[in-house]
Design brief:
Blueprint (H helix, E strand, L loop, with lengths): L11 H18 L3 E5 L5 H7 L4 H4 E6 L3 H6 L11 H15 L3 E7 L13 E8 L2 E8 L4 H22 L4
Parallel strand pairs: 1-2, 1-3
Antiparallel strand pairs: 3-4, 4-5
Helix pairs in contact: 1-6
Length: 169
Amino acid sequence: MHDDPRPEMLTDQDLDELCRQLAAVVTERGLTVATAESLTAGNIAAHLGKAPDAGSWFSGGVVAYSRVVKHSLLHVPDGPVVCEEAARVMAHSAATLMGATLAISVTGEAGPDPQENEPPGTVWFGVVDHGTCETEKRVFSGAPEAVVCATVEHAIRVLLRHAAAITTT
């Protein structure tokens, strides 16, 4: 079962436009954003960092490609790292480490071979929104590059959706 958000890969310019939209919303609402990335190896943070005024709203990110880093720095419990619990803990840790109101985490398997009994394309997302965490599992199809691109796009859209839904008080 695959649930690709779009069958074609977005260009860097398309992703940068999503980040510009995110920048406008988080700036307007006084939010800060952080990332914890495994599968995407910092690609989400790289796109966020190019957005307007990123220095005022993007707190930073952790690239935790190694299990050791996931366990020691991000406090992921021993066991599988491509799972809901890992995504949840990674998002909470990023929010805490960076002091962010909104944090996204991604952990998954791009392929081409399965790992941890998960098929290629399996990605877990965690998003912390003012201390509350939600998780989501997606399965993307295609070569590893397509899976990474789809993951980056979806993560930015999740951030945008959460930022836009937050009401200011």
